[in-house]
Every structure is written in C-alpha cells, then in structure tokens.
C-alpha cells in the first residue's frame, strides 16, 4: 500500500496520530539531532541526517525496571511484577540503518526465551522510516553491510522525500493502520510517483559511501586473525569510554542490578541498564579472572560480535553501517578501517 | 506480566553446611521452593540465585536431579551476592530462577568408565553427575574421582567423598604436605598424572579453576584421551541467563544457553575467552 502526502500535510498527520498516542521525531537540540516527543502543534521537518542516539531506545530503554521487591523484617519477600502498559507510540524519521537494526534486535530479544519487555514495546511502537536520498554522512556504509539507503527492513512505513511531497509506503499492519488513521490526507500514488521513487532510489545508491573491500571475506579474515597482534595495535588509542556501543543501534548488552530505595523495610527494584563490552569489568569474574583482560581483546570482541559471531548465528552482520561508532569515537577507532585491515592483514 | 523470564521463584533456606572456612569459604545451601514452585533440572544445569537488594549470581545446581524436595547449591563467598548468601540463616528466603544451560550427556555414557577431576569449588557442578552415576552404578564401569583443595580445610564434601569410596576410587589431594594427611600432596593435574587413567572406553569430566582445567586437559590428552572423551564446564560472568545480556559469550556461543558443559572437542573450536 502506498500513497502520496503533501509536505504541508505532515503536521496534520502527526496531529491525527497524537490523538492515539505519543509521536516522536528528530529535533535539533542544542548541537545534535535527537528523537524528541512532538508537542501538539509543533512543526516537524524531516531534514535531519541521522540522530546521535539510534531508535533502539524506544524498544530497549537505557534503564528498565524488571520488577520491584519489598521485604518487611522477617516476612516473606513480596515481588511485584512490572505492569508494562506501553502507550501507542509512533516514531518518525527513522533512517533505514536503524530499521535494519530492529531486525537484528528482534533476533536477540525474541529468539529462544522471548524478552517480555522488548516484545511489549516492539508490539506498540510504529517505526516510520525515511529513505536517505540525499548525500550520506561521511561515515555511512550501509551498502557495505548489505543494506541500502532505501531499505524497508524492520520499518512499518517507509517515506521517501520527493521534493514537496512524500511517497509513503506502508509495510506492516501497524504501518497500514497509521496511514489509514488519516486516509483523507493522502492521495493515491500514481505510476509517475512510483517511477520517481525508483529514480530517487537509484540516485541514492550513486552517492559514494565508505566501503569494505571484500565483505564476504571478512568472516574468514576475522577467524584467521583472532590471535593477531593487529588487535593490540588497533586498540592502542582506545580509552574504553564505550561511546561506540552506547550509540550503536544493534548493541544490546545489559547489566542487571538492584536499586534499593529503603533499608527497612527493604524495598527496591531489580533494574536493567545498557552495558558495554568495552568496560574491563564487563567480563571480570568475582575471582578477579578476566577472560578479556585488555583493550585489544575487548575491541576484538566488539568487531567480531558484529561481523563474525552474529553472522555465524543469524547469517547477517550485526552492524547496519550507520557510522555512529566511527563519528563519535574520541580516538578515531573505525570499524570500516578495521574490517579492511583484517582482510588485508596489515595496518600502518 | 505473563512469562516474565526475569522474575525468580521464592525459595526458603532449609539447611546450611559450612564446607570450607576462611577467605575462600564455601557453604552448601539446601533450599525448598515456596508456594508450590520449583523446576526439574539435569546434571550440569545452573540457576540464577537472588538476594533481594544485592543482586543475582549464576550458581550450578549441586543436587542430584532425582531429589525433588530441595535444590542444593555449594557457593564460594566471592562477591556481593555470594557474601550476602553466606550471611543468611536457615529460614531466610532467596529467589531462584532456572534451570539454565545444557547438561552432561550422562545417558550417552552407559557402559563406560568415568573419571571425574575436580578442584576447589569445582566439585559442585560435577557432583550431580557423580550422584547420577552412583545411583545407576551398574550402568557404568569403573568410577574414579580426583579432587583437590589447597589445604585439608579446603576439601568440600569431605564426608560425602569418604562415603563415595564404597562405589568409586577416590583420590584426594592438597597442594602442600600437612601433618595427618595421607592423600596426595601436589596440584590436581599432578595427582592425575601420578595415577594414569586408561583412556579406553572412558570419559573424563573436569571442573575447577581455569588454570587447573587447562593442565588437566593437557595431561588427559597425554594419557591418550581423545578430545571427544573430555568434558568440562565454563562459567563466565552472567546476568540474564537466557542469551540476551551479551555477557557470557565465548565466540558465537552464549555460555548460559549453549554451555556450560562442553566436550574439549567442542570447546577447542571456540576462542579461548573463558
């Protein structure tokens, strides 16, 4: 199902959706783009490149209460399960790299034992994507990891900017629902419109992106170089800040801790928070033994998880080429460069 | 929320035994599920133990699967959660969720000789296997148990091991000589080398500190054990237990799901990050 929305009607579509729940869209706040809640009547212009934080927080928040506990002195603990009622939520302006990240996060959180918190949010959130048909950011490499600037994967709707109007393609039931909610705002898409979308997609692929010279050989290269001294060289500048993983749309590692609010009676919550494989204590046993003792081993873990282990398990890279980990690394560690170095076996 | 995989069941501590005193204290806790809860487990599986207000730790289930009245955990005091458990008394309530992980394929070992090699707290994960083998004694050939602690005071399950002598050959060791010790003096791998085991039709199961496992495996291979005949467990740091939190991975495997039990043939194909 596809349709045309005039750009001046975007605000009215958002207003219609706000009658049902919250709407989020990218906003330039201080010095960076971020997803913010759209206030009623506020104007939204979808002209961002990409947000600093990915869209994963809508389905996997940075902090989440798993349950609460209360223990009166000497009595049986009372555990209160989280009543997770996620409000219907629509997120505009999700770039295709973050859409493809959702496909990967689904694999992690819904395969095997399903994660009830992720699942509840995933069922409630509608991701409205925006194809990238303007020149990419300097560190974009979605094509190198099998994606495209116009990928529909993991999105409920894909919008394509056609100069004055949007082509709006609903991809899922949730997507059709949000379009149907404001059907009077949309016009039928014509063959000419669709032709224009195709041309825009072709043009989008013409923009040069960063490239990985032989992605199909990277799996073998990472296996071959597991013990290579290259890792220590590549990680020499790493300060272990973890920006790469916090900003990554597919990084999903988390910690679980108890937050105590009162000692007597003992009350508190078991809470999960994003965690980070670049931190030394991430893998440290209580004995002090640490399977990944140095920054080289930890960098290797991050790169191998994305470009080797996830491929072995799920037959896809756990990287969608958004480039955030490169752009925001304070010391210039660069996954694209590392992939190329591994394949070539040399680093200058 | 239905099916909240993170919510533990409540279990009451019904018995505490001090196995080992001192800085590396080990206590064995028997817990009984409350409110009609509980779960079945297989030898080798683990459970996530909660002390509310402190957190969770993954602990191997040390009781035999046939015991349904309680579950037993032998816990070394090592960090925040295990210290809190060590401070608990009979009657106190903890949380337990599980079972997690795979199991020792005991059913595949019928008719074979079993060689168990444990060190320190590493007797606990293989204890349910020993119990299962002894309970079905006629299904197996010779059963041999090597176990060592740093000193005689570090020997856990001391009384149970003595009782085991009727069913199995038991070889105990301590690191350095002590008055009154009539067992072996030296490290566990050396004790094994001192009493060479015939690899023919045998399975070796080893668990203990990573460094001990490494030397034991080397020694077993020197005796002629094939990689497929050697089993061990790895227990990386874990938080979720269900393959989501990303903490315990070794290569592509999440140990909480694919492990903790591996044959050396399987384990040596993974990166040595454990």
UniProtKB/TrEMBL annotation, chain A:
- Which ranges carry the 4Fe-4S ferredoxin-type domain? 227-259, 310-341
Q: Which GO terms describe its molecular function?
A: iron-sulfur cluster binding; metal ion binding
Looking up InterPro entries in the UniProt record yields: 4Fe4S_Fe-S-bd, 4Fe4S_Fe_S_CS, Helical_ferredxn
PROSITE patterns, from UniProt?
4FE4S_FER_1 (PS00198), 4FE4S_FER_2 (PS51379)
Tell me where on the tree of life, at the top rank, the source sits: Bacteria
According to the record, the segments passing through the membrane are none
A Pfam family cross-referenced in the UniProt record is Fer4_22
Q: Which UniProt keywords apply?
A: Iron, Iron-sulfur, Metal-binding
**Tagged with keyword Iron:** yes
Its protein name is: 4Fe-4S ferredoxin
Say which species the protein is native to: Blastochloris tepida
TrEMBL record, chain B:
Plastid found in the keyword field: no
Under which name does UniProt file this protein? Hydrogenase
Q: What cofactors does this protein use?
A: [2Fe-2S] cluster
Annotated GO biological processes are:
pyrimidine nucleotide biosynthetic process
Q: Which InterPro entries match?
A: Cyt_c3_hydrogenase_gsu, Dihydroorotate_DH_Fe-S-bd, FAD-bd_FR_type, Flavoprot_Pyr_Nucl_cyt_Rdtase, FNR_nucleotide-bd, OxRdtase_FAD/NAD-bd, PyrK_electron_transfer, Riboflavin_synthase-like_b-brl
Q: How is the cofactor bound?
A: Binds 1 [2Fe-2S] cluster per subunit.
UniProt entry keywords in alphabetical sequence = 2Fe-2S, Iron, Iron-sulfur, Metal-binding
Q: Does the keyword Metal-binding apply?
A: yes
Q: Provide the FAD-binding FR-type domain boundaries.
A: 6-106
Annotated residues for binding of [2Fe-2S] cluster? 240, 245, 248, 256
Alphabetical list of PROSITE patterns matching this protein: FAD_FR
Question: What would you give as a GO molecular function for this chain, any one?
Answer: 2 iron, 2 sulfur cluster binding
* Native species: Blastochloris tepida
């Amino acid at each position: 199902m596809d349709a045309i929305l005039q750009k001046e009607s975007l605000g009215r579509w958002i207003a219609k959706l706000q009658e049902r729940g919250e709407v989020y869209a990218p906003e330039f706040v201080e010095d960076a783009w971020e997803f913010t809640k759209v206030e009623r009547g506020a104007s939204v212009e979808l002209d961002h490149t990409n947000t600093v934080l990915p869209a994963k927080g809508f389905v996997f928040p940075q902090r989440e209460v798993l349950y609460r506990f209360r223990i009166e002195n000497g009595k049986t603990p009372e555990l209160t399960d989280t009543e997770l009622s996620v409000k219907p939520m629509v997120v505009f302006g999700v770039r295709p790299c973050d859409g493809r990240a959702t496909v990967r996060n689904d694999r992690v959180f819904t395969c095997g034992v399903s994660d009830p918190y992720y699942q509840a949010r995933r069922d409630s959130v509608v991701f409205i994507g925006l194809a990238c048909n303007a020149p990419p950011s300097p560190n974009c490499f979605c094509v190198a990891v099998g994606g495209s600037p116009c990928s529909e994967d993991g999105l409920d709707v894909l919008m394509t900017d056609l100069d004055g109007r949007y082509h709006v393609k609903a991809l899922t039931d949730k997507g059709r629902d949000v379009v149907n909610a404001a059907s009077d705002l949309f016009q039928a898409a014509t063959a000419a419109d669709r032709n224009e979308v195709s041309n825009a997609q072709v043009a989008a692929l013409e923009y040069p992106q960063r490239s990985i010279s032989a992605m199909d050989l990277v799996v073998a290269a990472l296996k071959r170089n597991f013990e290579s001294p290259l890792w220590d060289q590549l990680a020499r500048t790493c300060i272990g800040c973890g920006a790469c993983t916090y900003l990554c749309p597919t990084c999903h590692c988390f910690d679980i801790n108890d937050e105590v609010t009162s000692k007597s009676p003992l009350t508190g919550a078991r809470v999960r928070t994003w965690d980070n494989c670049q931190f030394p204590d991430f893998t440290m046993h209580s004995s002090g033994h640490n399977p990944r003792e140095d920054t080289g081993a930890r960098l290797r873990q991050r790169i191998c998880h994305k470009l080797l282990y996830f491929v072995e398990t799920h037959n896809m890279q756990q990287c969608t080429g958004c480039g955030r980990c490169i752009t925001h690394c304070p010391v210039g560690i660069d996954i694209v460069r590392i992939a190329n170095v591994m394949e070539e076996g040399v680093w200058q | 929320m239905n099916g909240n995989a993170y919510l533990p069941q409540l279990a009451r501590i019904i018995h505490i035994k001090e196995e080992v005193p001192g800085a590396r204290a080990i206590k064995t806790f028997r817990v009984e599920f409350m409110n009609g809860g509980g779960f079945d487990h297989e030898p080798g599986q683990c459970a996530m133990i909660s002390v509310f207000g402190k957190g969770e730790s993954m602990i191997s289930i040390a009781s035999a699967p046939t015991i349904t009245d309680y579950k037993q955990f032998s816990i070394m005091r090592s960090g925040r959660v295990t210290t809190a458990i060590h401070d608990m008394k009979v009657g106190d309530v903890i949380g337990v969720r599980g079972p997690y992980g795979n199991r020792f394929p005991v059913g595949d070992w019928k008719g074979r000789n079993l060689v168990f090699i444990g060190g320190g707290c590493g007797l606990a994960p293989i204890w349910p296997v020993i119990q299962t083998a002894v309970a079905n004694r006629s299904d197996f050939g010779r059963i041999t148990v090597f176990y060592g602690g740093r000193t005689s005071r570090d020997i856990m399950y001391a009384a149970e091991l003595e009782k085991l002598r009727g069913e199995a050959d038991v070889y105990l060791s301590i690191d350095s000589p002590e008055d009154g010790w009539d067992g072996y003096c030296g490290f566990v791998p050396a004790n094994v080398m001192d009493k060479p085991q015939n690899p023919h039709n045998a399975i070796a199961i080893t668990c203990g500190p990573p460094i001990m496992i490494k030397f034991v495996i080397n020694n077993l291979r020197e005796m002629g054990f094939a990689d497929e005949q050697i089993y061990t467990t790895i227990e990386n740091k874990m938080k979720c237990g269900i393959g989501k939190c990303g903490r315990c991975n070794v290569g592509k495997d999440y140990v909480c799901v694919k492990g903790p039990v591996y044959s050396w043939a399987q384990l040596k194909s993974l990166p040595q990050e454990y």
